[in-house]
Design goal:
By secondary structure, the protein is mainly α. It contains eleven helices and no strands. Helix 3 packs antiparallel against helix 11 and helix 7 (111-126) runs antiparallel to helix 11.
Amino acid sequence: MTTPLFRQQLIEARDEWHSKNHPFIDKWVNGELTKAQTAVYVVQHYHFVTDFLDWMAYIASKAPARDVKHHLLANLAEEEDPGDSHLDMLFDYAGACGVSRDAFLKSKVLPWTEALKDWGWRTAYQAPWQVALAGFLIGLESQPPDIYKRIVPALAKHYGWPEGTREVRFFATHIGADMVHSQRGFEIVERYCESPALQAEAVQAARIASRKRWNHMNGIYWHALHGRDDDTPPFP
C-alpha cells in the first residue's frame, strides 16, 4: 500500500532541484536572453529527449504491467506523431531563432547533457523498472509544465510570439500534455512501488534525475551566455 506521504516525498525530491528555478529560466522570463540564446535550450533538449523516448520504449519492453506498457507506448506515439511531431516543434522554434535544421542536427551535445543521457541509460538498464520510471516520469517529465508556464508569457512579452503562434507551440503544448503524463506517472509509481525499499529507491531516483536536469541547465547557461563548454557545474 502506498500513502500520501510517498507522493509528497517524490514531489519534495523533484523540487529540491526543479529547473523552473534555474537562473537560465529566470533570465528567459525577464527577457534577458537573445533569441539565439534561448535556442540553445531547445537544441540541447532535443539531444536529451530523443534518448528519453528510447528509455520509454525500453522500459515498455520489460515492464510486466499492461497499463504501464499502454501509457508509455501512447506517450511515444504522441511524441512521434508524424502529423505533428513534438520534435518537429523544436526545429520550428530554433528556426524562428535563426538556427537552421542542418545546424541544429550538427550541434554538439554539451557535457552535462551527455551526463544526463548517460545516467538515463544506466538507470533504464540497471534499476527496477518502477524506480526508473520514478526518475524519468517524475524527476524529469513532470517538470516542464511549471517551467513552460513561466516561459510562454515571456515569449509574448519580450520576444513577440504570443500564445497560439507556431513558434511557441512546443512550450504551450507541453504544459497540458506533460501535466497529464506526470499525473499518470505518479499513479504508476505509487501503484507499483509496493515495498518500502522500492519507495525509497524511487524517491532517490526522482531526486537524482532532477539534479541531473539542473546540471544539464547549467551547461546550457554557460554555453549560451559565456561560450563555456567545460563540465564544471557553475551553480551549487
